[in-house]
Amino acid sequence: MRKISEQAALARLQTTKAHYQSHIKVVYEPAARDCRTCPTAGVCCTDAHFVNVHITRLEAIAIRETLTRTPRLTDEARRTVYRRAHEAVARFGLRDGDDTYAQTYSCPLFEPQVGCLVHRRAKPAPCIQHACYDNWTDVPPMDLQWRAEHRIEQLNKQVYGQAWSWLPTPLWLVLVDPESDGLELRRLAREWSARGPSTTFSNSAQHTRLSPRRRSLPVIR
Predict the structure, then answer these.
(1) What is the mean pLDDT of residues 88-110?
(2) Each residue of 104-119: pLDDT tens digit?
(3) Under a CB-based contact definition with an 8 Å cutoff, are residues 163 and 193 in contact?
(4) What is the pLDDT, as a whole number, of residue 205?
(5) Residue 140 contacts residue 28 (beta carbons within 8 Å)
């Protein structure tokens, strides 16, 4: 597989996400409930019994860059996001090596009165896919998410080889925290690099493997 730079991959990642997000917005979201009128706004992001979104190393870098560049956040507000990530990792026991798809958490990227802090530039694929629908027939097919995630996996491999993994969002934010010494990420990268390609589950494969326990998108009756 041809190697590319991290910056080139970030640009391609943003393009992939933008196309995916536009498709969902135009084709499916007209049938979804309006988040702005939700009586429990943000609960789909902060419900620690529901959220188990996983992202990759490249997506974590994209989120970090988005948080760094956004003018809506002060330096203290940015640190608050990372503090929430550290708190989520500690509170919910998030760590690599466990069955991370069975772990849930409250997303540190949700800000009350604002919403998702990376909505436009670095939103994870499951979050792009998610909405509340009245009818199951209106829900976007999971193939769309899996196709986007497959492309994300390919970009990670082109940049990092095997030195990456799908992990819960708070855990990745801790690993790429600008104030981190980077030792834990380097340790994990060595472990991931040592594994064979056959031992690496894709995110869609994990979804399929754990399908009896996966949570469905909410359908409002």
Answers:
(1) 92
(2) 999 999 998 889 999 9
(3) yes
(4) 53
(5) yes
Number of structural domains found in the chain: 1
Question: Dihedral sign, CA of 171, 24, 159, 78?
Answer: negative
- pLDDT tens for residues 13-31? 999 999 999 999 999 999 9
Residue 177 backbone zone (phi > 0: left; psi -120 to 50: alpha; other: beta): beta
Residue 52 has, within 13 A of its CA and on its CB side, a CA count of: 19
User: What's the predicted TM-score (pTM) here?
Assistant: 0.90
Residue 206 included in any domain: yes
Alpha helices in the chain (DSSP H): 6-27, 43-46, 57-69, 75-92, 125-129, 142-160, 169-175, 183-194, 203-209
- Would 218 be classed as within a structural domain? no
Phi/psi of residue 102, nearest 5 degrees:
-95, -5
In this structure, what DSSP letter does residue 109 have?
A: T
**Domain that residue 175 falls in:** 6-213
Q: Specify if 221 maps to a domain.
A: no
> Is 58:6 a contact under the CB 8 Å cutoff?
yes
Q: Classify the C-alpha dihedral 71-74-80-82 as positive or negative.
A: positive
* Interval 177-212: pLDDT, tens: 999 999 999 999 999 999 876 455 566 555 544 443
Is there a domain that residue 1 lies in? no
Taken in order 139, 145, 146, 147, the sign of the CA dihedral is positive
Closest CA to 50 of 102, 128, 95: 102
Grade residue 35 by pLDDT with cuts at 50, 70 and 90: confident
